[in-house]
Amino acid sequence: FRSLVVLALCALGADALSCRLRQPRTLVRMSLGGGAPLSRRETMIAVGGAVLMGGAKLAFADEEDLSAYETIPVAKDKMGGLLEPFSEVGKGWRIMKPYSWNQFEQLPGVYEMKWVDLVATNRQEIVVTTSPVKSTTTSVSALGDVKALGAKLAEARSSELVEAKAVIKDGVLFYMFDFKGQDLHQLYQLCIAKGKLWSVTASAPEKRWDKSSALLSKSLLSFMPKL
Question: Which of 54, 152, 204, 209 is most buried (most C-beta within 10 Å)?
């Protein structure tokens, strides 16, 4: 299974050096039935190219005209108090986080911020990560077609790609994915801003998805890599 994951990640555009550096873990780490998003290093391998790895520079497709994409508003709905505003002033980003969830501060090389449901058995979490990109890479459109990328990520996760779309929020292009696994459902969002690839992951057990999807979707739709 791990060999298939390596092949899937390499197909995204990672060079041979990147793929030899390590055998990447599955994109959704399964532990006691739970899951976790990519670490920064794994994100670099998964998207294959916006970042510098082992001194190798990988090429991207040309940026597309942003006017071709659907524009949606940044979510501000607190869902009756279930969400509350959070801003990381020092690094300039914001999100509506679930009220009362446990917050975990930056773990270098792994995530910028993580929120986990207080009820451990719910196994729900939202994670924000970043990876540096080349100064010439200014839009997530450089990763290529959103549906093709989503299909590769779904294959690597052994999940069904429910949806893959590209949208504009407040002038920033986002790639948004919805993955349905046997045990875990996950929303995954990518954008490039401020010289970084930003990823936001929201996950919950598949059996809780009907109860959790609205909250997690609103949270991701509220994320912006600027204040």
Answer: 204
